[in-house]
Write a structure and sequence with these properties.
6-stranded mixed β-sheet; two-stranded antiparallel sheet; 21% strand; globular
């Protein structure tokens, strides 16, 4: 995978868990279950783009894509826990939230994705093309860190093959349900107050010692007995999602 940022030479990649489904996205409440949906473990960097993520997914599990893969849309969502829904006393499952990241279409405006050549030095732009812009940035060029991703968050990928007439499938509905009950997120479910951790946080699968009060992702946490287990190592002052 080509390096787009010099920090990749100075830092080790992290493990990203990408959950996949054909035809639509996962519901956020599916991530509160003990049995999680099928997923891939990919090593990447915060500067990873959606183009690169699509490339990695296709290279790691080519059988997930139709043959030929040209015209397949890969849509991505960020999945993260809402810390305000975590009950430290009862260790109940947290509410999970979702945020649309964007989508790419394989071969849109190019020769498509040759998964047999996935590890060569060909530029990703020649295989996977961004399909639209959000906030002035083409989807395929959006990065994980630019979407406020924190190590421990999940990514959900909806794999959408071309329609029977050959047209590119539209993105899944943007209506996002949240929480074990499927209800809408409350005003407490703000991403900037969430905790960037996956399901396998602590013993028993849920976090311990989450500090109470108003605090933002990436800020130094108040001193406490469990702070060592929650070292965040991120810059302070992260904005809201």
């Amino acid at each position: 995978m080509a390096s787009h940022q010099p920090d990749r030479e100075d830092m080790a990649p992290f493990l990203l868990r990408v959950f996949y489904r054909h035809g639509t996205f996962h519901r956020p409440d599916e991530f509160a279950a003990r049995a999680l949906p099928p997923s891939l473990d990919l090593y990447t960097w915060p500067s990873c783009t959606l183009d690169e993520l699509a490339h990695q997914l296709a290279a790691e599990r080519p059988a997930l894509l139709p043959d030929p893969a040209v015209g397949t849309r890969l849509a991505f969502r960020l999945i993260f826990p809402d810390a305000r829904s975590i009950d430290n006393a009862s260790h109940t499952a947290p509410r999970f939230m979702a945020k649309d990241l964007g989508s790419v279409v394989i071969g849109d405006g190019g020769p498509g994705l040759d998964v047999s050549a996935a590890d060569d030095d060909t530029d990703m732009a020649d295989r996977v093309s961004p399909v639209r812009q959000r906030g002035g940035i083409k989807d395929g060029l959006r990065t994980l860190e630019g979407s406020k991703f924190v190590v421990g968050d999940y990514v959900s990928c909806a794999i959408l093959p071309p329609l029977p007439d050959g047209a590119v499938a539209p993105e899944p509905t943007r209506h996002i349900r949240a929480g074990p009950s499927g209800g809408p997120p409350t005003h407490h479910g703000r991403r900037d107050l969430g905790a960037g951790r996956g399901r396998d946080w602590g013993a028993g699968g849920f976090p311990h010692g989450v500090p109470h009060g108003e605090w933002r992702r990436g800020e130094a946490l108040p001193d406490g007995p469990d702070r060592g287990a929650w070292g965040r190592g991120r810059n302070a002052g992260r904005g809201g999602r």
